[in-house]
């Protein structure tokens, strides 16, 4: 089994995800090969909370140009984690 730090890469903080926090939903960038069960166990272990459900989606990287050079950003996988009522993640506290 992998360590939770290998599964949860970083929290994703945008205007849209900040609005989701009112519904007790938190968004993370996760390892591309992680499944919902691993994500649930990693969040519960890292933040000491109870997870109700996990939704995942894959984000394809956008095409970018620098002058005549073309490239693309990396693909990434996001997870929207819904916590059970009464639980909060402390690193997101000042953002709501």
UniProtKB/TrEMBL annotation:
Gene3D superfamilies according to UniProt: 3.30.70.330
Source species: Thermanaeromonas toyohensis ToBE
Gene Ontology CC terms: ribonucleoprotein complex; ribosome
Family assignment from sequence similarity: Belongs to the universal ribosomal protein uL23 family.
Described purpose of this protein according to its UniProt entry: One of the early assembly proteins it binds 23S rRNA. One of the proteins that surrounds the polypeptide exit tunnel on the outside of the ribosome. Forms the main docking site for trigger factor binding to the ribosome.
Gene transcribed to yield this protein: rplW
Gene Ontology MF term list: rRNA binding; structural constituent of ribosome
Pfam families: Ribosomal_L23 (PF00276)
Record-level GO BP terms: translation
Classification lineage: Bacteria, Bacillati, Bacillota, Clostridia, Neomoorellales
Stored NCBIfam families: PRK05738.1-3, PRK05738.2-4, PRK05738.3-2
The protein, known as: Large ribosomal subunit protein uL23
Keywords: Ribonucleoprotein, Ribosomal protein, RNA-binding, rRNA-binding
Subunit details: Part of the 50S ribosomal subunit. Contacts protein L29, and trigger factor when it is bound to the ribosome.
